[in-house]
Amino acid sequence: MSIRLDGDKTGAVPGRVRRILRGPRPERVPSLVGTACTFVGFLDIAAGVFPRFRHSRMHAFAEVLPGALGPFAAALAISAGVLLLLLAHGLKRHKRRAWRAAVVLLPAGAAAQFAYRNSVIGVLISLALLALLLRHRGEFAALPDPRSRWKALANFFLLGAGSLGLGLVIVSSHPAKVIGDPSVAERLEHVLYGLFGFEGPVDYAGRVSWTVGYSLGALGLLTAVTTIYLALRPEHPAARLTADDEQRLRELLARHGGRDSLGHFALRHDKAVVFSPSGKAAVTYRVVSGVMLASGDPIGDVEAWPGAIERFMDEAKAHSWTPAVMGCSETGGEVWTRETGLDALELGDEAVVHVPDFSLAGRAMRNVRQMVKRIERGGYETRVRRVGDLGEAELERVRRAAADWRGTDTERGFSMALGRIGEPGDGDCVIATAHKAADGGHGQESPYGDLKAVLHFVPWGTDGMSLDLMRRDRSADPGMNELLIVAALQAAPRLGVDRVSLNFAMFRSALARGEKIGAGPVLRVWRGLLVFLSRWFQIESLYKFNAKFRPRWEPRFVVFRTTRDLPRIGFAAMQAEGFVTLGLPRPFARPAAAGRRRPCAHLEQVRVRHEAGQPAA
Fold it and tell me: Which parts of the sequence belong to the Phosphatidylglycerol lysyltransferase C-terminal domain (predicted)?
């Protein structure tokens, strides 16, 4: 069967589509402007902090003006410099609001430099940057990022700490004018008082005390104003999957869900979606730290993929987000790279078990077979059912157990995790549970009855399922995950399932080739690094756990724009998967609402061990 990849049946010309999807290469002007803005910001701060180099008629005139223009100009220069530093990153990302603020601040900083230090060079540099901004104003059209009021608290602490450090520099930058010899503690006290607009214990000769007081007051006012603005501005939260979007995605999955094992994970509630013009394909994504992160292949008809990808790239360009795709298949990677000009890199392999070929017989399955039989002799039994076949009381018990057995405060999972169990519309999901009756009433009774472990699978078309999460009671015998996977594979024919997708093993090919005879030194070093990182991320143990079931390995790829974006994409992916958390410290974190703790996290599946008989981590 031939597959057309040249459009979305909307009359688009293939070459034109590719040029649109490819988008412009990263512009040099915004990057140059952002760097120059950083330089001018430091220049303005230096102009306001350090004493004047020489006296002039302008300085003498400014000193006698009402309102002490000289100290006021110093404070204005410092404020403008700090704000320009804060805006530099936004200018590099083409942000329109950053451009508007910089256009206002640059002439203000130039005027302050001229009034306080008569610095013609500083004025010319600021005006030259202003002219550059005005000349290329069309390059700064990106829309704002998703935001929340929690940034106000971060701004208060970060800018407050910066103001405190800069204030110490301001207080100490006039040694010839200081009266007496104040200690560091007294200087720090003077800064703290000055940030709130009060006079501190340090005194200066002449009008320097005015300059220091105005400068410290400006820093304190700047911290307060920006914090209040961030706290009171309307929230623009990250997009969420609406009920209508979810229904449209379910319809696409009903027709084309058998193509990609990750398709059902597009229904996560914390993902947004863009549809092709015809509505026959969609790309789901989440924005993390300025990275527009999609996962898996586009949903829907392959012929309509280019239209959905075009919408995705247009959205990324409109907000100046970095586009990236995590875990797409080989076909998906080919379409993404062909239609957008992006690049692809193999990320790892997905373990897929063909159910009719699975058997516990044979030498290769001896370890799994022995472990399963040993656990069954210990009194454990398994049940594999559709979620829709469970009663509400039992389903609620499974939810609570999965949440409490998660083992970490941070919910993990994004690309291969659904993030929920048993919600309306998920009745086709499969739950495998392990049970063991209490031993004659000895010991404390579990709040989950005889439930000891849970596996949750999501549909993969009409004849497959993908592993979502694995949770077990820490007091249960080791090997619960192996027991339930075997039970699910043995029950699959009864459920009409012919293929089961297990865990995703990152860098599997490097681990497999690196341990073979004849592997080169570079490959051995790379494998050694992966084994070392497995102490925290358990890359090797997850690969070996998957290999027990003799799966077929399907490669998965990451799609990116340029190599220099990879560190940023990797960091964003780790945030999305829950390995890196940039939230508030525990005392300030908002408590989870009752009933909203989502026992998701495909990546929590790494809590396994390869060696038989070794307890799960």
Answer: 250-559
Q: Is the dihedral of CA 365, 366, 372, 376 positive or negative?
A: positive
Q: Are 471 and 402 in contact (CB under 8 A)?
A: yes
**Distance (Å, whole) CA 395 – CA 451:** 11
Rounded Cα–Cα distance for residues 118 and 121 (Å)? 9
Give DSSP secondary structure letters for 545-607.
HHHTT-PEEEEEEEEES-GGGHHHHHHHHHHHHTSS--S--GGGSPPPPTT------GGGGG-
Candidates 281, 287, 341; CA nearest to 311 is 281
pLDDT at 325: 94
CA angle (588, 593, 594) in 5-degree steps: 140
What pLDDT score was predicted for residue 610? Answer: 33
| pTM confidence score | 0.69
Q: Tokens for 130, please give them.
A: 């202003």
User: Which H helix or E strand runs over 77?
Assistant: helix 69-92
Q: Of 89, 84, 114, give the one whose Cα is nearest residue 102.
A: 84
Tokens of 48: 């306001």
Task: Give strand pairing partners of 222.
Answer: none
The whole-angstrom separation of Cα 81 and Cα 219 is 11
Considering only CA atoms, which of 553, 577, 544, 567 is closest in space to residue 501?
A: 553
- In 502-600, alpha helices (H): 508-514, 521-537, 539-547, 566-577
Q: What is the pLDDT of residue 601?
A: 34
Tokens for 220? 């304190």
User: What pLDDT digit, counting tens, does each position of 28-72 carry?
Assistant: 777 888 888 888 888 888 878 876 544 444 444 444 444 445 677
3-state secondary structure of 477: coil
Q: Is the pLDDT of residue 611 over 60?
A: no
The sign of the CA dihedral 182, 185, 187, 190 is negative
List, in order of start, the domains of the chain with CATH numbers.
23-232 (no CATH), 243-352+508-582+599-607 (no CATH), 353-440+447-503 (3.40.630.30)
Nearest to 464 by CA among 430, 425, 490, 498: 498
Helix (H) or strand (E) holding 274, with range, is: strand 272-275
CA end-to-end distance (rounded Å), the chain: 46
| Amino acid present at 376 | E
- The residue count for the chain: 617
Residues contacting 563, CB < 8 A, separation 6+ = 343
Q: What is the CA radius of gyration of the chain?
A: 30
pLDDT digits (tens, 9 = 90+) for 583-600: 544 444 444 433 333 333
